[in-house]
Design brief:
The protein is α+β, with helices and mostly antiparallel strands. It has one domain (about 5-140): Roll (Thiol Ester Dehydrase, Chain A). The chain has helices at about 5-10, 60-75; strands at about 5, 25-30, 30-35, 85-95, 105-115, 120-130, 130-140. It has a seven-stranded antiparallel sheet with strand order 1-2-3-5-6-7-4. A hairpin with a 2-residue loop joins strand 5 (about 105-115) and strand 6 (about 120-130). About 25% of the residues are buried.
Length: about 150
């Protein structure tokens, strides 16, 4: 499977411009996805507040990886992914206070644990090299077509 670049993956999620935090998909299959990003180093990152990016925002990196994974799976089935929202966060671990000072690319991984209709549960992990930045479990609920 070839690497998916920023432009192609940005077309899969509703986050546009600098709010698309991921740079590429390096690997994916039916159950998981692995992405990389250097957007935490960019001064135009919209998650910056007073020049810093809080590590809690690593959850958004994980959520975007989940959205791309869902879009890739939907595309394989000949359909478009419906928009969704985060319904719950569980077992969140944040291992640092900020991410803008991390000089290495972020590796963002997500594993689909459950898919039941429009309800999805993913485990995610964000690392810089071998160091954990954040991890946790996210429940996503797809919106109904009329929402």
């Amino acid at each position: 499977m070839s690497v998916i670049g920023r432009e192609e993956l940005a077309a899969m999620i509703p986050h546009k411009g600098t709010m698309c935090l991921l740079d590429q998909v390096v690997r994916w299959d039916q159950c998981s996805i692995e992405c990389t990003s250097l957007s935490h180093r960019r001064t135009e990152n919209p998650l910056r507040h007073d020049g810093r990016i809080a590590a809690v925002h690593a959850i958004e990196y994980g959520a975007q990886a989940m959205a791309v994974h869902g879009a890739l799976l939907a595309s394989e089935q000949g359909r478009c992914l419906r928009p969704g929202y985060i319904a719950a966060l569980r077992n969140i671990e944040i291992a640092c206070s900020t991410i803008d000072d991390i000089d290495r690319p972020l590796q963002v991984k997500a594993w689909q644990l459950m898919a039941d209709g429009g309800n999805l549960v993913y485990q995610f992990e964000v690392k810089a090299g071998r160091e954990l930045v954040a991890s946790g479990r996210v429940t996503v609920v797809e919106m109904e077509e009329n929402e």
